[in-house]
Amino acid sequence: MLARTSTSSPGPLARAFERFRLNHAAICGVAIIVPMFLAILTYPLWWGFKPNDIDLLAMNAGPSAKHWFGTDGVGRDIFARVMDGGRISLLVALTSTIISAIIGFLVGAMSALAGRWADAVTMRFVDLVMTLPPVIFLLVLASIAGTGIWPTVFVISLLSWPLLARMVRSRLLELRERDFVMAARGMGAGLPHLLFRHGLPNSIDILVVFATLQIANAILLEAGLSFLGLGIAPPAASWGNMLNAARSTAVLEQYPWQWLFPGGALVTAVLAINFIGDGLRDAFDPRAELN
Amino acid sequence: MKRVSRLTYAAALAAMMATSALPAFVVPAQAATLSGGFDVGPGGFQGNFNPLAATSGFTWLSVYYEPLVTYDEKLQKVVGLLASSYEVSDDQQTYTFKLADAKWHDGKPFTAKDASFTLELAKNAKTGSVLAARLTAISSVEATDDKTLVIKLSAPSASLLDTLTKVMMLPEHALTQIPADQLAKNSWWSAAPVGTGPFKFGRYVTDQYVELTANTDYRGGKPALEKVINRYFANPAAAIAALRAGEIQFTYVDSNDLNTFRDNKDFRIIEGNSFVVNYLGFNHDSSIWKDLRVRQAVMYAINRDAIIQSLYGGAAKPANCGYVADQVVPQDIEAYAYDPEKAKKLLEEAGWDKINGNKPITLLTYYTTPLAANVMAAVQAMLAQVGINVTPRAVDTPTYNSIVLNPTPDVAQFQMVYAGLQNGPDPSSINVGLNEKQIPPAGPNVVRARMPELTKALDTALGETDATKRDARYQDVCKVMNAELPWGTLWVANRYGVASAKLKDFVWTPAPGGGPYQAHPEKWSIAD
Amino acid sequence: MLKYSLRRLLIGAGMLLALSMLIFVMLRLTPGDPIDAYIDPNVPMSPSDLVELRATLGLDQPLPVQYLAWLQQALTGNLGYSIQRPDQAVLGLVVSRVGPTVLLMGTAIVIAIIAGIATGIVSAVRRNSLADISFSVLAVTGISSPPFLSGLVGLYLFSVYFNWMPSGGMLTPGREFSLLDLIHHLILPASLLALAQTALIMRYMRGSMLEVLNLDYVRTARAKGVSEFWVITKHALRNALLPVITLIGSTIGLAIGGAIFIESVFNWPGMGLLMVTAVENRDYPVIMGSTLVIGACVIVVNLMTDLAYAAVDPRIKVG
């Protein structure tokens, strides 16, 4: 890839990539998240304990050579649960981000490109959703959807798209009046053509940045939902519901490994993803220069 | 821009002061004030002030209101409170109460007319009373003189006295002007309620606390404390933090949070029977539980002793029927000792592979405490060992009720429940959960138990007017439950409160719904 | 301008109507109703006992009838009574929560602005020093921690372990009101709520300060022999603050999100706590009422912001 871009004049994506590469924090983020991902995906191959195997004789044991992260209140291995919880938390975060990015982009782009009427209707709808207090929206939506992976994905997706729709719309509004879009329209280009040939390339940077930051947000939201008794229900593990064990003062105080490790994993992942997101934002920012 | 730096300096200073200097202003609570989290835990009902609408929260309500009769401290028998004595006629249909010489907090005398007024309110569902259906057996209430109340029943009812313990007496002179359907909405309840109890209402600070002050004219003597405060907590962990920080002197504590208080001489742990039997309820409308051998296999597959020892710290009694109290449990019932091999064999004989096999079975519960999450995890793992694949699903109480009380439930959502039901102090309490006549929408027999023998045993026990034979009747109920397994009965756990060691003569017990029981709040005191 | 405001207000009223319908429908889709929330499964009442109670509340009527009945009352300014606490009027419940929430969030935002700007400057000026690195680490941890966890840990550390702060509530029960008492209860939840915003403001402040410090006019000031302190406070800070100020507006959203968790851990009697308990108890009137009150506030604030922009910036035309 790099070899080819250096022979021709580098395109905007290549330049952005180059800027990203020089951002230490962002590279650091990649260096954290990639091994973490690998570990989470492959852990059943090299770790002897399963996340839901109980052992009432070894409950609440501290970290040791056998159980690296200790065990929980029914003797399940915390390391295995952190790994398995990571799978679920990241799955929830990734899918909900993709869904909300798709909805947000489509609504925003259609609003900007499909004419005044569509714009007025969709934007009023976005306003309506944004006027709804997020607390109520979250709680009521979560009570309707129930607990589990897919309901949680559904709730987080529905909560997150309006902001993106607004950003995409305001970016594409100026595009609407530009010559090449006018020309495309004049030649009878349909809405899909406008959306994907012109809308998408022009808002790809917003989408990428939104996506990374939203993944981090979604992980935190899932944890919050678990705290309110929604989200991923035990005994399935997620970082959020493992942290929830800290509600019990005994766990908070006497068995800190039961929440410190999932908490550490969550904070590290969110942190790394935020670094990458910031790096991407800087990389796409035309004002930022390579020095 | 000089301003900004000065501002930051000031802020830093303020922050420092806040962390270091402010604690100096924290004055310990006045010696004669007892603060507690009286409405924390399963027996509490924060924010409810209306005893007619109370499904729980009686621990607190009975500090300023009083019923005619109440349970004793051990919840073993019903004793008089505002009624100094009572008599039951031979046909069990006339109850005569002699009322005590009591005064309302506003100085007016408490009379039999107040008592009959209250009972009429409680019988009238329009007032929002949740007791109405339980009082339908009453045909008339009559105040024969100022201090005598006669209640006549249309048929004998073994549970009338139990229900009467939950009817808090209300002053006719204060409430008679309010139309019945406006009563619940009236601000009287949380602004200026009047009772007869040892403490009278001080004030309610929205969502923060309720403050009561001593009723110096109390007929049982002047209370030792000046004030009792009930603090509200949205989060049980915060109540424990407040207790340990010395801000409150009492709260309910979940058994898995007890460790921090054990061997600590500053605190006294109060242990009591929860009178709630936990069970795995088989939905008998689902075809998978039809075979008795499958239900037996569930019992043999779960190592209840191990769960009790490790998760409950030993503080629960295994239940082999709806009861654990010695007088109602016969000697010769099956103990269902842990035996996974036997469970596997029973499943094989029943043809479990064909009935359900490895398909996931939803195990629904409304318990959301960390302890319950651990119990569910253990149950899931133990059942998986014998080849029953359950998926726990914890939901909030309204969701649970809307699923299980639905007259035509979706069986796929609801094949099995992990639940609890009050089984005492009155053993007839479990009738509603098991009697065929109580299947929703008629009653809360949520497992849809249709077992003629069990229904017959329950009906016989309920209709038994001879008090000496009652225990034997409930032993029969236990025997049928043990054999037919409408539920996979698990255990009856103890519940706990923790009180500061400074509290003297403080009486509390984890009664279902919070009581009421004889707590003698007028005797509570606190040492410096 | 007047015509524009009127039109916007009219649209706003339409939005509120749509909002009330949306939330009404959403509530009825939620499993369980207020009566279901009433029943303790351990001490059950039979569903037939509650038929009358449901009827009294009108919950047995068809949905459109229930909605119209509610709307009719709401139009006269009567938002009804709480179902869980029937002696409390919804409007009173909601209004009494606004003060504590504004107090908590306002304090948190002030703390975040002051602490964020101060640490941001220190980090930028002492770049790569121990202080810079530790502030940065704290900041990123602050952004990445779930608020309920920092709430629980903060509660344990400061009120149980060190016993410096009260464990919750807004005032000491049974004591007369005193400002000092209020501040003492306010500091811990407000600081914990401020954590994420502080971190965000600090990072932006650091970045923008670094950028400004390299600009020509700052170099000129230095060359003129202005002391470093003055260079920073007088010359650099003014310009570095600009992007941070625009950021502050967007952190308010963070505060609102975190407030439910902090309010429920610390039992702070605010809107978040009210709404969480209302949803738990399916207290329809309270949920409808608080949604409408908040929605109306959002609409009015949006309108005022737009008008204010138009008044300040001649390039923006309203209408």
TrEMBL record, chain A:
GO biological process, one term: peptide transport
Locations listed in the record: Cell membrane
Taxonomic classification: Bacteria, Pseudomonadati, Pseudomonadota, Alphaproteobacteria, Hyphomicrobiales
Keywords: Cell membrane, Membrane, Peptide transport, Protein transport, Transmembrane, Transmembrane helix, Transport
TM annotation in the entry: 25-46, 88-113, 206-237, 257-277
Keyword Membrane among UniProt keywords: yes
Membrane topology: Multi-pass membrane protein
Domain ABC transmembrane type-1: 86-277
Keyword Lipid biosynthesis: no
Family that this chain belongs to: Belongs to the binding-protein-dependent transport system permease family.
Domain of life where this protein originates: Bacteria
Predominant location: membrane
Name of this protein: ABC transporter permease
Pfam families, A to Z: BPD_transp_1, OppC_N
PANTHER family attached to this UniProt entry: D,D-DIPEPTIDE TRANSPORT SYSTEM PERMEASE PROTEIN DDPC-RELATED, OLIGOPEPTIDE TRANSPORT SYSTEM PERMEASE PROTEIN APPC
Organism: Aliirhizobium smilacinae
GO CC terms of this entry: plasma membrane
Automatic annotation (TrEMBL), chain B:
Localisation: Periplasm
GO function term, MF aspect, one: peptide transmembrane transporter activity
GO cellular component: a single term: outer membrane-bounded periplasmic space
SUPFAM superfamilies tied to this protein: Periplasmic binding protein-like II (SSF53850)
Keywords associated with the record: Signal
Primary location group: periplasm
Solute-binding protein family domain ranges (all copies): 77-417
InterPro entries per the UniProt record, alphabetical: Peptide/Ni-bd, SBP_5, SBP_5_dom
GO terms (BP aspect): peptide transport
PANTHER family per record: PERIPLASMIC BINDING COMPONENT OF ABC TRANSPORTER
Record-stated family: Belongs to the bacterial solute-binding protein 5 family.
Protein name: ABC transporter substrate-binding protein
Species, as recorded: Aliirhizobium smilacinae
Top-level taxonomy: Bacteria, Pseudomonadati, Pseudomonadota, Alphaproteobacteria, Hyphomicrobiales
From TrEMBL, chain C:
Coiled-coil intervals, chain numbering: none
Domain ABC transmembrane type-1 span(s) in chain numbering: 98-305
InterPro entries (alphabetical): BPD_transp_1_N, MetI-like, MetI-like_sf
Subcellular location: Cell membrane
Transmembrane segments: 9-27, 102-125, 137-162, 182-202, 240-266, 286-312
Record's keyword terms, sorted: Cell membrane, Membrane, Transmembrane, Transmembrane helix, Transport
The keyword Nucleus is annotated on this UniProt entry: no
Pfam families: BPD_transp_1, BPD_transp_1_N
Entry's family note: Belongs to the binding-protein-dependent transport system permease family.
Protein name per UniProt: ABC transporter permease
